[in-house]
């Protein structure tokens, strides 16, 4: 008998104020529960999608005594679901912020948390330098959580471009990997589907990608297209464009073992080093020349 579980992704058009965003999450989680979901994932920056650092300073709260977290715990408890907040900004003592993913259990307790590891620091031709590390402190630990009936691996947005993290999560037992995101429209059109499908194929995991979508109050435009990918790399559910809404699908967890048996890339991996031949060595042809 196959083992199935129903999951849901919330696609949002988050604004700069926590109140409206929390109300939207509460509404969508209730919809997801009525649809039979036991796990619900929201996008990156679900609680406040600030315009700039000043906006973050005005809205983000520390971990202890965080009012948004208290309300989210209540939403998880009231609906009896694993509620996975893709990320929210947490104020740190050094003046920076953590881009933190938080997983609540059906009783409202915190199962796990993960701070985004990879931060986008880039010099872009024709544009100003972008330094995410000036505002955020990156994490340093890959995180999995056993939430029964599956083991969940956690990542956030830009992490998607670093396959070693996903292999680490799979080797740690993950069967399902969350990728809450706020992809821009140009990068989404170019890379969103292919990267998510690649991470699923490489790891033999289901990949769940809840996304921000549309033109936001902070002036940004995000790609949307929240989607669920099977361990074989097939998109099995997807939001139609960038409008807010819900994506619901039943996962056949037996597909994880099946994909890994058909293509045992995790089991067949070998460790190697990069380098040139040792100094002084010579290469000879079969003819001895």
UniProtKB/TrEMBL annotation:
Gene3D superfamilies: Carbon-nitrogen hydrolase (3.60.110.10)
Similarity section: Belongs to the carbon-nitrogen hydrolase superfamily. NIT1/NIT2 family.
Keywords per UniProt: Hydrolase
Organism phylogeny: Bacteria, Pseudomonadati, Pseudomonadota, Alphaproteobacteria, Hyphomicrobiales
InterPro entries: C-N_Hydrolase, C-N_Hydrolase_sf, Nit1/2_C-N_Hydrolase, UPF0012_CS
Protein name according to UniProt: Carbon-nitrogen hydrolase family protein
One Gene Ontology term of the molecular function aspect: hydrolase activity
Segments forming domain CN hydrolase: 5-253
Domain of life: Bacteria
